[in-house]
Amino acid sequence: MQEKVEKIVRKLDANQKTISTMESCTGGGVVNAITNIEGASDVLHYSAVTYSNEFKVKMGVNQEVIDTYTVYSMETAQEMSKVISNFASSNYGIGITGMLNSVDPANPSKNPNKVYISIYDRDKNTYYNDTVEVFSNSREENKRIVIEKVIEVLESNL
User: Fold this and answer.
1) Is-contact 72 107, C-beta < 8 A?
2) Quick one: average pLDDT of 128-134?
3) Options 1.10.1040.10, 2.40.50.100, 3.30.1310.10, 3.90.950.20; which CATH number does 2-157 get?
């Protein structure tokens, strides 16, 4: 995975593009992978781990989107990706929300295994969306699976 992330960082740098992340269930795993690469500071503008709904909203995610679609939805992931891109004035924003094979009594979900990934391309005003389902009893393993999927979506859309 590190080689893929390195290629992404090099491509962003070569194209003078920047990226920011708003992660929830991955807890900063994507930004960690990016900052493990030498030169990441040239492309990474900002990162936020917004584990709670309260801080998603404080960062600019529309409460109505969360109320209408739930926090565990593609609509919320899209809000997160666009909000972080605009907040940080970055070309790309990544939004990740979902459940890692667990239950959240405060935010019921029909699918406790589904994670929603949205990458917002501010220059094209478009979203690259995907989902991944995780079934491991290990949160660490589930995070790894989601992070790998995010890298795959980034790699195919930059």
Assistant:
1) yes
2) 97
3) 3.90.950.20
CA distance 137 to 147: 17
Name 130's bridge partners: 117
pTM (two decimals): 0.94
Q: Residue 111 has what pLDDT? A: 76
d(CA 1, CA 78): 24
In tens, the pLDDT along 65-95 reads: 999 999 999 999 999 999 999 999 999 999 9
Helices marked H in 16-96 — which ranges? 29-35, 53-59, 63-69, 74-88
Paired with 95 in beta bridges are: 22, 118
**β-strands 114-121, 126-133: how paired?**
antiparallel
